[in-house]
């Protein structure tokens, strides 16, 4: 009598166990890896990356522009972006038609070859994600402060710090400080320098690849072991866990997110001819600001390879074509334009970048900006989705009155990143700048906060970010004395930051609000 119920119970238990196992496996397959490779894994990765570079380098070299660099009549003006009133696209580059055709043919060949080549897949640890930086020399103190700000958010993303070559490797930083913050240093020349030398026109042996300055960013991203990348410049830090962006739209939808600069796009019309794309409207988007980028190497490998091509020939050809001498000319336009030319999706955040800084001028009405504030793309995307829903409601003849609270759920996007780009907040140098560009002065020449305007933007931080940043700068200045090679021979770095802290934040602790920001973040 009990056999049938027992068989039914056993069948139910089997089905339940199967279901739970399936769910567990599915969760496991979706799980992301938040650890750095071991020393053995790192050596294996590097060997495979060298193989990848040996496959990519000949394709880069065989598809050179094969023409003189473009001639720029003058630099593009710094014109602020206004989607409602866009100016005509500047056209300041002169090139013979034959040279444009040569560049177009080389661009087409390169794109066709990398799409068709099975060996040109960037080497990654599957399902891994992390933060990638490139820094060395005088930028290392700035990088450590930024990295500590990253850890303040509670983020546990691993970090890879790329150095140009062995001359930038500082043992005290790479063997002690960076590992203590869940990071590792990677020397780019150990990969790029492993390629065979080539013979120049003069018969001398020359290295196959000479990568420097703005070009470092794309090659750090290309050779990072992470499948999903949060790129941050050394002077850029997040205000919330950056991994949260990777789990939300628009990143989940597109696999690539960029942020805007202050200025109009100044991409030359000739570039669109070379890449065989229609010329977009000047009101479509601002130029790019690439202090921060989100990118999936799984979905955007062609974008990465084409961006590497643009950067490899950037100083000579593509940087002038993509910026025409506008502010910040360099790698900044290569990522979004590569994605567009490769036909891979991206989301360009449209919430305008905002400057923060201190007041300047005799009347105190000007602003000396020292940082750029970028906003949350997931918040912006949510608002965009709500707008679409409300538009649908408005167009529905059966819902004439359903949109009376159509904007009730719309919120201003939160602050995501602060890019403290000019000047650099290196405690060894930041107090030595000229009077007006020094971010640490008040109009009377005394020590003061760097970020006091605009108050509306500061209030959106949610907490006193500048105080937190100076806590980390103070830690770097005092705890890492004698650690940075660029600080050799410099005395009193810790003491000067301590004095600044006492003059500004110590005074505020006693209720002295000279800079007028106390109370902005009180609940």
Automatic annotation (TrEMBL):
GO MF term set: alpha-1,2-mannosyltransferase activity
GO biological processes: mannan biosynthetic process
Keyword line: Golgi apparatus, Membrane, Signal-anchor, Transferase, Transmembrane, Transmembrane helix
Signal peptide stretch: none
Pfam families xrefs: Mannosyl_trans3 (PF11051)
Principal subcellular localization: Golgi
Membrane topology classification: Single-pass type II membrane protein
Pathway assigned to this chain's UniProt record: Protein modification; protein glycosylation
GO CC, alphabetical: Golgi membrane
UniProt subcellular location: Golgi apparatus membrane
SUPFAM superfamilies documented for this protein: Nucleotide-diphospho-sugar transferases
Stated family: Belongs to the MNN1/MNT family.
Protein name, as recorded: Alpha-1,2-mannosyltransferase
